[in-house]
Prior knowledge:
This protein is mainly alpha-helical. The protein has one domain. Helix content is about 75%, strand content about 0%. The chain has 14 helices and no strands. The protein is globular and about 60 Å long.
Amino acid sequence: MGYVMLFLWLMILPFCAGGLFCTKKNRISFGGQWLWGQFVLWAVFQIIAVYYILKQGSLEDVIRAYWMITAVIAVGGLALALKLWMDGYKPVHRKTFLWIKEHKALFFVFVALWLIQMLALLFLAVNDGDDAYYMAIASVAESSGNMYTANVYAFGGTELTYRYALAPFPIWIAFLSKISGVHTLVIGHILLGMMLVTMSYVIYAQIGKVLFGDNFRKRIQMLIWVAVLFIWGNTSSHTAESFLLLRSRQGKALVAGLVFPAMIYLLIKIGHCLEQNRKITFREFLLAAVIILTGCLGSTLGGVLVILLWGSGLLFLAIGYKKWTLLPLGMLSIVPGLVFAVIYLSH
């Protein structure tokens, strides 16, 4: 039953929430709908968790508020997606590219590389010193409900350390463990790695779609090269590939492996729309706010860096294409994430 709950919270509810980004002019794939829905739920969790952490509430308070808001978002997204479906606007889902023999071969190469990573995450173990804090925070929060107020290195209580308290990714792991009954270490060391690595490939697939359009051969080749870089990217303990494959239960991996590529995808997409004289919709700026909040969930500094990436990228696009109307909504999308940076700097 516990794994059914995890499937619900990690697959079904994000997929439903992703319906918020479906429009008649912006049909997204099933994978994209799941991906952006999870980013929405992460952004909501960031706001709720930090609020209760600063109030020195408990994990139960977070769970109570989070599931109600998630239910509303999921129902709203599902209703919107179903309405578009009934109107004839179905999600993009094509299998025709597999009819070509070359595409089949490339696709199976990519699947083999993906499976190698999944099996490595399942059977191999990685020791990392930061687990002594991050996974201990998740375990204590799940067992006692205390969020960043227990001294996980020894015993007793401690004051809030805003560097960590404003980036409650371990609390999200504790939340998953609490609602499912699956141990935090199983979620953090195995399931979460599989999920985040798979999500990263969905993001790169979205990037490939913008860059190469209907050229499926180039899109699959891009994913193969990304997979190769992931597997042999452990040239340092601080590369994005190392964080994603070896330290996925830590928020830094979320920022390096998913948030930055997601923001780069959004900037590429906006630039592509400007190049084709297509309208930039409000949903792009909503997605930017969601990505920034997800960056804050993983790391306080990571959230600031994502804001800098978004702000500088949008500024260059506005200058290059003389589209100054991008800037007001772009600045507005920064505000939610900027609040957490201000709180951190004020303490």
